[in-house]
């Protein structure tokens, strides 16, 4: 004699419900559901907090602030070098600039996307360098893009890229 289950209690739907329940528990526990439920970050117009901090440090000639904004793993792609790797190399480059020049920075056409612990910023900059011992002022106008992550003492760059347009273009 075979046992027949009522349709609502049949083993297959019960197994399916258990599988769905297990999958839901896994998804919730994995953090994937909250991540999927979040709306995508919005592009914001203006200067991000890390870029404002960088401008302040450059205009004040503050090498220590520049060092704090970078880690030993930061990569900086700058107009006068292929790449600077790490806090010490980046701070040394700024030390050289701060020793020779006073700087003013203008940021234009700037945007950023901010997540919980990361900011991606981009835009245009003008860096005006006035020699401390006299001479001609140097003006560089270019574009920038950077990625910064939240650190214990503020935002810290992962990647910082500044470039100048090719001459004659």
End-to-end C-alpha gap: 88 Å
Structural class: alpha+beta
The percentage helix is 25-40%
- Unreliably modeled segments: none
CATH topology of the largest domain: Nuclear Transport Factor 2, Chain: A
The largest sheet is: 7 strands, mixed
Order of helices and strands: HHEHHEEHEEEE
**What would the principal axes of the Cα set say about the shape?**
elongated
The number of domains is 2
Name the CATH class of the largest domain: Alpha Beta
Radius of gyration: 26 Å
What is the strand arrangement across the widest sheet? 1-4-5-6-7-2-3
Proportion of strand residues: 35-45%
CATH architecture of the largest domain: Roll
What is the averaged pLDDT score?
A: 86
Task: Give a structural overview.
The structure is a single chain. With 169 residues, the protein is α+β, with helices and mostly antiparallel strands. The protein folds into 2 domains: 7-37; 44-163, Nuclear Transport Factor 2, Chain: A (Roll), CATH 3.10.450.50. Helices cover 34% and strands 40% of the residues. It contains 5 helices and 7 strands. The protein has a 7-stranded mixed β-sheet. Strand 6 (138-151) and strand 7 form a beta hairpin. The protein starts with 10 loop residues before the first helix and ends in a 6-residue tail after the last strand. The relative contact order is 0.15.
